Amino acid sequence: MIPAGWEAVIGLEVHVHLKTRSKLFCGCAVGYGDEPNHHVCPVCLALPGALPVLNAVAVELAIRAGLATHCKIHPRSVYARKNYFYPDLPKGYQISQLDEPLATGGYVEITPEGPAGTEPEVRRIGLTRIHMEEDAGKSIHDDALAGPDVTLIDFNRTSVPLVEIVSEPDLRTPEEVGAYLRSLREILRYVGASDVDMEKGQFRCDVNVSVRRSGDTALGTRREMKNVNSFRAAENGARAEIARQIEELEDGGEIQQSTLRYDVESGRLTTMRLKENADDYRYFPDPDLVPVLLDDARIEEIRGSLPELPDARRERVSEQYGLSDYDARLLTASRPLADFFEETVRLHGDAKTVANWISRDVLAALKEEGSELEESALEPPMLAGLLRLVDESRVTARSARELIPDLVREGGDPEAIVRERGLEAVSDSGELEALADAALEENPRAVASFHDGDGKSLNFLMGQVMKKTGGKADARAVRSLLERKLTGGE
Amino acid sequence: MSQLGREEALRLARLARLRLEPDEADALAADLRSILALAERLSEVDTDGVPPTSHVIPFATPVRSDDPVPSLAPELAVANAPAAYATAFAVPKVLENEEEG
Amino acid sequence: MAGRVEPLGTLAELRAELAAGTSSVAQVERALARTEARADLRAFVRLRGEAALEEARAADVRRGAGESRSPLDGMPIAIKDNMVQAGEPAGCASRILEGYCSPYGATAIERLEAAGAVVVGRTNMDEFAMGSSTEHSVHGPTQNPWRSGCSPGGSSGGSAAAVAAGLVPVALGSDTGGSIRQPASFTGVVGMKPTYGRVSRYGLVAFASSLDQIGPFARTAAECAEVLDAMSGHDPRDSTSLPEPPTRCVEALCGDVAGLRIGLPRECFAEEGADAAVLERVRAVAAEFERAGAKLAEVSLPHTPHAVAAYYLICTAEASSNLARFDGVRYGHRAEGAKGLTDLYERSRSEGFGDEVKRRILLGTYVLSSGYYDAYYRKAQQVRTLLRRDFEAAFESCDVLLTPTTPETAFRIGERSGDPVQMYLSDVYTVSANLAGLPAASFPVGQVDGLPVGAQLLGAPLEDAAVLRGVDAWQQRTDFHLARPEDPA
To answer: How many CB pairs under 8 A join A and C?
Structure first.
């Protein structure tokens, strides 16, 4: 909670790996977790005489990210060299974009959790720009291999394509930071631009934080937390820094502009350096690359190829299938899940039924398996087929529910499985009749209670019949059968 | 440009990761001043509304497909390394406060 | 020193010898032997020896089976030390690349190798192509074959000297501000810089990316045409490579200049700009072209006086960035016992780079640094646009332009090293072609006091064939290109 009288102002610069198979400026494969320098070539190693050539798919994915966040895509964008020295930067410059980025001026909508019982408010977080750049290599420390005085450098990650997404300083609370990052991730995954897989190191961000007294319009001096690589760290780091700045100001101090590191484990913020002199990166347009020129037709083609975006899909699903916003949100949480839901409805016909079965049973089974829907063997025709069996009373709902984990794990034809395991519901009227008669005969006291007006004895008798069928009878059929017999109809 | 003295030469040297002794810095500063005197002539040229050339011969952006191609054999990648361990390049330990720039 | 070894002839002469029964091995052996015999020139920094002979042997086998790959099959050539060949060392005449062996080869060279040419060795140059005299080399200077103690020009002085002295018929150089044309002029051979983007820069160690081009040296335009045709054409590994097929310059050499419109830029014939004797020779060239049917016209390139300044701001800016990769981390020279990263960088680079390179890196850093970028770099690029427009206007009424190549003939080694500005100013006729990306060639047009004089033809973008056609027509009417320097007694 931000103390009364104060306001926090937060902006994020997010870097994510684009979902390409090869690097941004050379054909080396993008790989994770491989041995050092197994994916390098003269270009990404910056050998003398090597030259960069742009990856077309990277540009397309970056455009998708820009369109999905409502940015203006610029018909001309220019790569610039950002010059500095560091061992993980082989050329001594990073190819990035400065004055003419790919996209500017979009937004991301978030619905952060409000106080309990209130409607979540939709907040629009502005984006300043999205631009493309290449990633750097990685430093490794391996005392066993190289001793304590050596840093090892692995260039596998060098020149992996990144987009940098810069937000306006529109975020106001640490919770909003988390909501923003989750929204952004969902959008990027939806359009296939990035998997935003934190474990693979595909995400990092810089968090810019300043505070001011409520009502002030001028911005306070900001401090920047660099290279945060999880959503939780971003949120907690922001929280810690806001508290720290407020404390410093209340003590009468002044905020010095500086760069910080946030240590996730200890929760401590350390100052890396004071930002007295702005870095002189000597940006200039890269003469080895020609500007990216896009015509409207190309941009529209990419726009046309975008899937329905998360928000739009949520709304449509809710309206089209008559689902609550909560249910729609659940069922469109990921694109594969949303596709699965809609396809199953198309095959089966009843959205509410399908919705229930997915949200209750399928999701639970997936969680139990620890797998994602895309990895599981369950497919829409299987679920639709199973539900149809239930509808036709050929299998009981209870039996069907038990099959879900198996379908998730191994897939298969529901009808065949039901037959193999002898799970067919007992609905043969002759057999049921006989069993019902038997139950009535064996339980004269219950029959008598029923006639005395005790409705519960019907349930008891139903239970008896169900036991005889091993649970494979359709409960409604049994009930109506017993009712008929008890009330004298034949 | 008359500011281009020893201090400025040393600042440039730091940016370019070159080490200059004070007398070298002075000599280089003098050289740079005379070369820049040549460049001062450019300020006489009227360049209002003239776009800077960033690429001499304009043509469409060349791009490559996203198909990965074989990389260098890792041993070859480090073959020229002044220092390496297995397939990783080695440098003196990078200290926490050693900044980029 | 070994006994005298006969200089090698032109490609046509070598092919005639092969037809008469000699072998590529014999010719490559002769190239190697003559180079050793003329070690005093220091044209080469490294010879490929046995590797070259192997390739010559293979060429002989192909010829014997009637399967020669091209007219260049088996021909001995030399390449400048800033172009990489797979599995071979590349040094750029610098200490900082000591011991470096390239795992890949330059596209232009691979194409010549595919045509069967045999790279005999790597030639001397100014370090990282920065210089106009081949004095800034870690190996020591190259001598001008016409006069010992004189510079062959630079930065491709080694390649120029190798051709002028008959060590090889053809050599490759690189030209950023005149580094092929000026040495060609000083050594009495033809040197050509193609249209920017004609020849792939993949594998050429970058000096100034928007200005560099690889080009041929030879005694004749016809040989330059052969080499250009074989190595030019779009390369997907170079994003600045033109989307054009290889040139067909050999086909275009018809010898006819009737109706050719030759422009003479008045700014390049100003009396104060060059030695009187040089200007007189170039005017005589114009007159000879006119006698052969060409039409002369005076044109103006008003921004010429600003070309050198614009060039040095742009090339040093790009170079300061291109040379940042030489940091002692992944290859090349690393200072001993460095304590920490900054020490590693600073000492490795300071020990590895020569003075001229350091000077240009610092100037380039200054030009790009914040606060100066607009006044220097951006301004220079704007002036560059104006220069390009000057040429566009001139080419509306002319097919080619004729100028001197250099203001004077070869200077003495050591004469210029003290004054960088004076050295830079002598690039006045050559830098514009790089700034505008135009094809341009220098060709021998006589001598003054025993030293060669060159004239330059420039063409509009993509008019490489027109330029070589002009030089070829000149060479069909005159015999300046037949003059050869003598070997020392």
So the answer is: 100
Fill in the DSSP letter of residue A360: I
- Which helix or strand (DSSP H or E) is residue C387 part of? helix C379-397
Lowest mean per-residue pLDDT among A11-15, A159-163, A278-282, C141-145:
A278-282
Name the residue among A34, A135, C322 with its Cα closest to residue B71.
A34
Q: Are C233 and C244 in contact (CB under 8 A)?
A: yes
Query: What is the pLDDT confidence band of residue A184, given thresholds at 50, 70 and 90?
Result: very high
- DSSP annotation of C94 reads -
Instruction: Say how many C-beta atoms besides its own lie within 10 A of residue A239's C-beta.
Output: 19
Architecture of domain B6-44: Orthogonal Bundle (1.10)
Please tell me whether the peptide bond between C155 and the residue prior to it is cis, using omega within 30 degrees of 0: yes
Instruction: Note whether C377 contacts A45, CB cutoff 8 Å.
Output: no
Q: Which of residues 48-67 of B touch A (CB under 8 A)?
A: 54-55, 58-67
* Whether pLDDT at C91 is above 60: yes
> Per DSSP, which regions of A155-228 are E strands?
161-167, 203-213, 223-228
Residue C385 has its nearest CB partner, among B37, B53, B82, at B53
Which tens digit of pLDDT belongs to each residue from C322-354? 999 999 999 999 999 888 899 999 999 999 999
Cβ-count burial A52-75 (b if 16+ within 10 Å, e if not): bbbbbbbbbbbbbbbbbbbbebbe
Domain residue extents for chain B:
6-44
- Exposed/middle/buried for residue A49 (C-beta within 10 Å: 0-12, 13-18, 19+): buried
In order, the DSSP letters of C310-348 are HHHHHHHHHHHHHGGG-SSSSSS---TT--SHHHHHHHH
Calculate the CA dihedral of residues A73, A77, A83, A85 and round it to 10 degrees.
50
Do residues C405 and C441 lie in contact, with contact meaning Cβ atoms separated by under 8 Å? no
Listed in order, the ranges of chain A carrying CATH 1.10.10.410 are: 429-486
Q: Is C155 a catalytic residue?
A: yes
- Identify the pLDDT of residue B96: 58
- How close, in Å, is residue A137 to chain C by CA atoms? 13
Q: Name the H helices within C87-139.
A: 107-114
CA distances from A316 to A302, A354, C76, C464 (A): 22, 17, 73, 62
In this structure, what token pair is assigned to residue C172?
């490759």
* Chain A, nearest residue to C320 by Cα: A83
- Residue C61's identity, in one-letter code, is V
Q: Min CA distance, A403 vs chain B (Å)?
A: 41
Q: Which among B65, B93, B100 has the least Cβ separation from residue A56?
A: B65
pLDDT of residue C489: 76
Report the CATH number of the C11-255 domain.
3.90.1300.10
Q: Which helix (H) or strand (E) holds C33?
A: helix C24-37
C80 is annotated as an active-site residue: yes
> Do residues C409 and C452 make contact, with C-beta atoms less than 8 angstroms apart?
yes
Catalytic residue among C68, C94, C132, C155: C155
Cβ-nearest to A280 among C84, C90, C369 = C369
Tell me the mean pLDDT in the region C261-284. 95
- Report the b/e string of C268-290 with b at 16+ CB within 10 A: bbeeebbbeebbebbeebbeebe
Lowest-pLDDT range, A228-232, A259-263, C289-293, C313-317? A259-263
C379 part of the active site:
no
Rounded Cα–Cα distance for residues C420 and B36 (Å) = 12
Do residues A404 and A485 touch, judged by C-beta distance below 8 A? no
State the CB neighbour count (10 A cutoff) for residue C335.
18
A429-486: which CATH topology?
A: Arc Repressor Mutant, subunit A (1.10.10)
Delimit the domains of chain C by residue range.
11-255
CA C475 to chain centre: 20
